């Protein structure tokens, strides 16, 4: 029985360490990840808003700080405000789901989307199975949320 507890504790610590490592890497590469946000504005707004929601859920789960800072953000696209990601997803698929006209490196774009998806998957896994948290995890969650919020707010201005 004690052995099972030790194994479960080791697994939780390993999951936490992997999450923290991925968050550190994401933070260090954030500028290159959102490099194409102006060319693919609505696509990046959609992708980042989904990641932001999952990060906020994880922070709500493990933090006792006030919740107001992490409420869902409203997304503006084409002069219309969307407060649900499903409505924005529907709008995106109808209006913007076309081949981009800009000539950029698709490899760079795919790499950026892959990095966002990897962090999103890690956060989803931790939402399902993670049971422990530490100050370092909370700190990185807040830093990533702040960067994403800044990106989303800056994009709303233009």
Write the element-wise H/E pattern from the N-terminal end onward. Answer: HHHEEHHH
Question: Kindly, what is the distance between the CA atoms of the first and last residues, rounded to a whole number of angstroms?
Answer: 59 Å
Strand content: under 5%
The total domain count is 1
Number of strands: 2
Structural write-up:
It contains six helices and two strands; from the N terminus they run αααββααα. With 158 residues, it is mainly alpha-helical. It has one domain. The chain has a two-stranded antiparallel ribbon.
Quick overview:
By secondary structure, this protein is mainly α. The protein has six helices and two strands, in the order αααββααα. A two-stranded antiparallel sheet has the order 1-2.
What descriptors fit this protein?
single chain; 158 residues; mainly alpha; two-stranded antiparallel ribbon; 6 helices; 2 strands
């Amino acid at each position: 029985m004690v052995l099972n507890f030790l194994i479960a504790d080791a697994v939780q610590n390993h999951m936490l360490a992997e999450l923290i490592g991925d968050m550190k890497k994401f933070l260090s590469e954030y500028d290159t990840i959102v490099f194409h946000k102006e060319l693919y504005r609505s696509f990046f707004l959609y992708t980042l808003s989904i990641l932001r929601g999952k990060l906020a859920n994880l922070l709500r789960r493990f933090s006792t700080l006030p919740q107001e800072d992490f409420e869902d953000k409203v997304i503006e696209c084409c002069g219309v405000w969307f407060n649900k990601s499903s409505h924005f997803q529907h709008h995106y698929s109808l209006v913007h789901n076309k081949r981009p006209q800009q000539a950029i490196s698709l490899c760079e774009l795919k790499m950026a989307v892959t990095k966002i998806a990897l962090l999103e998957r890690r956060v989803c896994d931790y939402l399902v199975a993670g049971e422990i948290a530490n100050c370092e995890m909370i700190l990185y969650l807040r830093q990533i949320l702040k960067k994403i919020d800044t990106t989303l707010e800056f994009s709303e201005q233009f």
